[in-house]
Each structure stands twice: as structure tokens, then as C-alpha cells.
């Protein structure tokens, strides 16, 4: 008799495709209340998933958190620059780190390889080593990076199908589970 092996499933922190879609829409909707709810959900995922949390999800959440803080009007511009700055520095460092080889490759070259605008890398350099840039530039950097994450990561996860009504939920979840691994490998 032949032994049958079940396909290995990837364990993810979200409950299903619907929750994944809801969080993505919430993060990118532009309404602070819905963004905060999505951020709370991402925090729950992070507590379940720990260090396995996809970098793109984590980076998106950090940047959206800055935008929510900014829109609250309760934080001074210097503090906002620091918040945006930390999120942008972490994004560039984490994303380009995956492409770094044994020999150090300049960040600008690594960014070019993954289609991150060079000026975002320059902004990261200024935030890390120079004078703090104006808040408007940090906001613009955040918007550009969020758009990059939406196109490069989130849209790929959705497969450009936000609402496929007749698909089986298990098949949808399997697709999200399989694509969750994209985050760790897609930028290699």
C-alpha cells in the first residue's frame, strides 16, 4: 500500500482570507478609526506570529501608525519626524538587508534592484547620519513607501481579487498561506 502524504500547510496568524483582506483595506483606507482597528489586528497577528511576521506587514503597520499619529494632531512635528524617520529607516534597512550578500553592496544599488526610489534611500541616510529632514519630506517618503508596499506586496497577496464571491474559503486561505511565504522570499 502506498502512503499518502498530506501537503504541508503554512500556519499563519490571521483567521482567514476575509480577515487578511479586511486588514489590508483598513490599513490603506485613509480613515484613522479603521486604520487603528487594522493596526490592532496586526498587533494581534504579531503577538501570535512573533519574529515570523512578514516584513512587509510589519513595515506597513509602522508607517500607517505614523500616519494615524500625524492625523491625530496631538504630536509635535519634531516627534512626528522621529516617528516617520524610524519607520522609514527600518523599512529600507530590512528590505535591502535581504538582498545583502557576503560582500557589502551599497544601499542605493540594492534599492534600485527592488525598485525603491533612490531618494528614499537618501532620505534614510539623512535620517540616520545627517540633519533631520522637514516633516513634509518624511510624509512624502511614507506615502511613496506605502504605495510601494501596496503594489509589491499587498496586491500580490490578493492576486488582484478583492471580492471573488464564488470561491471556496479554504482555497482562498491556502492562497494567502502560500503567498505569506512570498514576503520572506520575494525580495531575495
Give a verbal description of the structure.
One of its GO terms (cellular component) is Las1 complex. This is LAS1L protein. GO terms for molecular function: endonuclease activity. By secondary structure, the chain is mainly α. It has one domain. The protein is 69% helix and 0% strand. The protein is built from eight helices and no strands. It has helices spanning 17-28, 32-49, 55-72, 77-97, 107-113, 118-129, 135-158, 169-185. The longest helix is centred in the last third of the chain and has 24 residues, at 135-158.
SSE order, one letter for each helix or strand = HHHHHHHH
Percentage of residues assigned to helices = 55-70%
Oligomer: single chain
Question: Would you count the extended β strands for me?
Answer: 0
Could you tell me the radius of gyration in angstroms? 18 Å
* Average predicted confidence as pLDDT: 80
The tally of domains stands at: 1
Report the principal-axis shape. globular
Number of helices: 8
User: In percent terms, what proportion of residues is strand?
Assistant: under 5%
- Output the structural class: mainly alpha
Salient structural properties:
188 residues, disordered C terminus, mainly alpha, single chain, 0% strand
Amino acid at each position: 500500500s502506498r502512503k499518502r502524504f498530506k501537503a504541508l500547510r503554512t500556519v499563519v496568524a490571521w483567521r482567514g482570507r476575509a480577515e487578511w483582506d479586511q486588514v489590508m483595506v483598513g490599513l490603506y483606507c485613509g480613515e484613522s478609526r479603521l486604520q487603528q482597528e487594522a493596526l490592532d489586528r496586526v498587533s494581534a497577528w504579531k503577538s501570535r506570529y512573533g519574529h515570523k511576521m512578514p516584513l512587509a506587514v510589519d513595515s506597513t503597520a509602522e508607517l500607517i501608525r505614523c500616519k494615524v499619529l500625524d492625523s491625530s494632531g496631538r504630536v509635535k512635528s519634531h516627534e512626528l519626524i522621529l516617528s516617520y524617520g524610524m519607520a522609514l529607516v527600518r523599512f529600507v534597512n530590512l528590505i535591502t538587508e535581504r538582498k545583502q550578500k557576503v560582500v557589502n553592496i551599497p544601499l542605493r544599488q540594492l534599492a534600485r534592484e527592488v525598485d525603491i526610489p533612490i531618494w528614499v534611500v537618501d532620505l534614510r541616510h539623512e535620517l540616520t547620519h545627517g540633519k533631520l529632514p522637514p516633516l513634509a519630506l518624511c510624509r512624502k517618503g511614507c506615502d511613496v513607501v506605502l504605495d510601494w508596499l501596496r503594489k509589491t506586496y499587498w496586491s500580490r497577496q490578493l492576486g488582484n481579487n478583492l471580492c471573488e464571491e464564488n470561491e471556496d474559503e479554504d482555497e482562498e486561505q491556502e492562497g494567502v498561506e502560500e503567498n505569506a511565504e512570498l514576503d520572506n522570499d520575494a525580495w531575495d
